[in-house]
Design the sequence.
């Protein structure tokens, strides 16, 4: 193991994915090991990535064996920060960012005897309320906020109407909200109580492959690469803070629209109420994120505070390549060959958002498709009921002009 190249003590913009899971979580790839995550994060262009599952003793032992500096664990150019996701007694999920192994041990001790799976499951289910979990996390000097706050089933807003209702007296110390894969800043900034919170866009990856790891990420200005540097960026202190959120179009989320969980037919809220939550096929109609936001919103339009960075909608490069070529699987040999060629000299993020496309050598359809996403020239068919939405190019790729292409510097 070697330390990352260059100084960790230089102000910089850093790409971060702060929510993933290890091989010790349910329904997670066995390839979610530290070496593979580090290698794939570097290809993606993610400098700081979550460990996930830091309460699991086996995973924590692997992490603790890495070189450590300033609260981060290092494999070459990838810095890992300790994180865990826990489920409370109402099945709401919470993302906890942990400063060091001793605090992870302290947190684990606080949760001992209060739930199942601390020794066997990377994301333990606790018999604790959100305020009780917040008490333990904040007293251990951790950072805490709701995971994928708007998604049905396990998001905060599926069970509560506000941060205050969820976290009670600890709500003022909840400094970030994870948007999740069915919401963006436009959705969340229709709720005025969230104006002072930092929004995080993370992948919640269960696989290290480039269409999962870093599919949503944050760009932040950080004074240095350290846990304290991360804390200051999330708290927006000393000139640090988020400069960009990047993620999928909310409509792509599998619970964006109110829909049947069996046949996936979409419904209005009025139709859902008339049918008492049951579809004609017998399936359950699940309220979608878009309608839930409408219920919670106290603002008719998004009102972004001055500190809120832009939100850039983008999908993974492998998916763009597959779409451009008309190939169904991102794992096809042709898609993988082109993806590997494109990221040989640049990271995926650089290819997607920074590179001069006229200087990239690849199939014309692929270059045109990347440009179409930079220009938001796409059509999204919303998902719902547990089925992802679909996305397509608005016009044929050969119709695209590239002389006014946008890049990351435009945001």
Sequence:
């Amino acid at each position: 193991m070697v330390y990352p190249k260059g100084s960790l003590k230089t102000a910089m913009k850093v790409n971060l994915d702060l929510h993933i899971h290890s091989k010790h979580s349910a329904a997670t790839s066995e390839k979610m090991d530290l070496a593979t995550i580090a290698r794939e994060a570097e290809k993606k262009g993610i400098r700081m990535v979550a460990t996930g599952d830091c309460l699991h003793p086996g995973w924590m032992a692997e992490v603790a064996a890495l070189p450590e500096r300033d609260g981060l664990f290092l494999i070459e150019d990838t810095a890992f920060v300790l994180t865990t996701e826990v489920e409370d007694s109402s099945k709401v999920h919470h993302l906890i960012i942990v400063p060091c192994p001793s605090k992870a041990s302290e947190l684990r001790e606080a949760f001992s005897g209060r739930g199942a799976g601390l020794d066997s499951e990377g994301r333990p289910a606790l018999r604790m309320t959100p305020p009780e979990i917040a008490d333990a996390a904040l007293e251990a000097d951790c950072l805490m906020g709701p995971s994928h706050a708007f998604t049905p089933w396990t998001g905060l807003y599926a069970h509560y109407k506000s941060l205050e209702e969820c976290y009670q007296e600890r709500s003022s110390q909840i400094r970030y909200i994870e948007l999740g894969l069915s919401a963006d800043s436009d959705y969340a900034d229709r709720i005025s109580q969230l104006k002072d919170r930092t929004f995080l866009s993370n992948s919640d990856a269960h696989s290290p492959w480039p269409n999962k790891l870093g599919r949503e990420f944050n760009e932040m200005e950080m004074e240095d690469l350290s846990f304290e540097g991360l804390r200051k960026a999330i708290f927006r202190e000393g000139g640090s803070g988020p400069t960009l959120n990047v993620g999928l179009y909310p409509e792509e989320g599998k619970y964006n629209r109110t829909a049947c969980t069996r046949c996936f037919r979409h419904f209005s809220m009025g139709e859902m109420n008339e049918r008492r939550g049951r579809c004609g096929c017998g399936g359950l109609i699940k309220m979608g994120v878009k309608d839930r936001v409408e219920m919670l919103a106290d603002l008719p339009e998004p009102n972004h505070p001055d500190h809120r960075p832009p939100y850039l909608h983008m999908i993974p490069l492998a998916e763009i390549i597959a779409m451009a070529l008309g190939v169904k699987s991102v794992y096809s040999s042709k898609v993988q060959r082109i993806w590997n060629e494109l990221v040989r000299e640049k990271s995926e993020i650089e290819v997607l958002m920074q590179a001069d496309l006229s200087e990239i050598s690849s199939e014309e359809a692929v270059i045109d498709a990347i440009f179409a996403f930079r220009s938001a020239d796409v059509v999204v068919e919303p998902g719902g009921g547990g089925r992802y939405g679909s996305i397509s190019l608005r016009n044929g790729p050969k119709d695209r002009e590239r002389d006014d292409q946008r890049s990351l510097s435009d945001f």
About this structure: Residues 317-404 form one domain. The longest helix spans residues 34-44.
